[in-house]
Write a structure and sequence with these properties.
There is one protein chain. This protein has 101 residues and is mainly alpha-helical. The protein has four helices and four strands, in the order βββααβαα. The chain has one domain. A hairpin with a 2-residue loop joins β1 and β2.
């Protein structure tokens, strides 16, 4: 993968943590939806639509995202994950009803 360099500074460690979350959720939900198309076009559409629908969470490294420490953090994470699950389900439904093939 190409490095993301700005004035010689590598920004490759800045990532949207929702990318991994969406992959996990797609596998979870598609596992029980046997009649849903899983071709590359449909999976890419579900993945990209999900990411568009969920507020991005860019962080410079995984340590920043995993720091907890308070119940408020855990509660916010739980709320965010529920919203993400709903958005991924909606993206699956949209793509399933309107496949690009």
């Amino acid at each position: 993968m190409k490095k993301k360099l700005v004035f010689g500074i590598d920004l490759s460690d800045v990532n949207n943590f929702n990318e991994d979350l969406v992959v996990d959720l797609l596998e979870k939900f598609l596992g029980s939806l046997k009649d849903t198309c899983r071709c590359q076009n449909c999976l890419e559409d579900m993945y990209s639509l999900s990411l568009k629908m969920i507020e991005p969470r860019y962080h410079p490294n995984a340590v920043t995202e995993k720091v907890s420490g308070t119940g408020a953090y855990e509660s916010a994470q739980s709320d965010f994950n529920k919203k993400a699950e709903n958005e991924v389900r909606e993206a699956i439904e949209i793509v399933s009803n309107n496949p690009h093939h």
